[in-house]
Amino acid sequence: MTIAILGTGNLAVTLGQAWAAAGHTLLLTGRDPSRAEEAAHQIGPAATAVNPGDLAARADVLVVAVAWEGLEAALSLVGGPSGSLAGKTVIDCTNPVDYATGEMKPPSGSAAALAARTAPGAFVVKALHMYAGASWPYPGPQTSAPVVAICGDEPAALDRAAALIRDLGGRAAVVGGLDAARQLEEAAGFVMRVVAAGHNPRQAVPDVDLGRA
Predict the structure, then answer these.
(1) Fewer CB within 10 Å, N or C, the chain?
(2) Is the pLDDT of residue 116 over 80?
């Protein structure tokens, strides 16, 4: 699969390295061509820095790994508003929350919904926003692998996202359509609030015995 990553930071590099190891081809782009070149170099021979205008046509899947404040501008950079991403799977990894307080920044809606509006016709999937880049790849057994909650409206796009999550060593859990994205984004805020209070968020959620649920 050819995976385009919109972003050049740590998350983009870490995901790119893991997917390259799984046999995928990576395309990198961003506002600064030199940073895209450096990110591609860090990922390795499977990655290439490309012009933003060339990204959409060459990719099977687009992964958005930017700060949420730059989401709209980043999708515009690759022609999203003009329909360049129509029919493409777009995985939105952004966290529209205040990292210090956990509060949601958008007063309503979600970052994923903003992505869908900015890239008409794209099949947007919310995924991979709950785990830092350092979480991947997960090398342990699948029975204890991280569960990545995802949501979206297009079944084929959800399948592609789930396959890429498996390639990271994780497990995907589809929790609804794109209208569930705000809840997923608020969950990231909840995690940050628990951390700010000095506790491990793993211990703030009940352990459910699925055999008895």
Answers:
(1) C
(2) yes
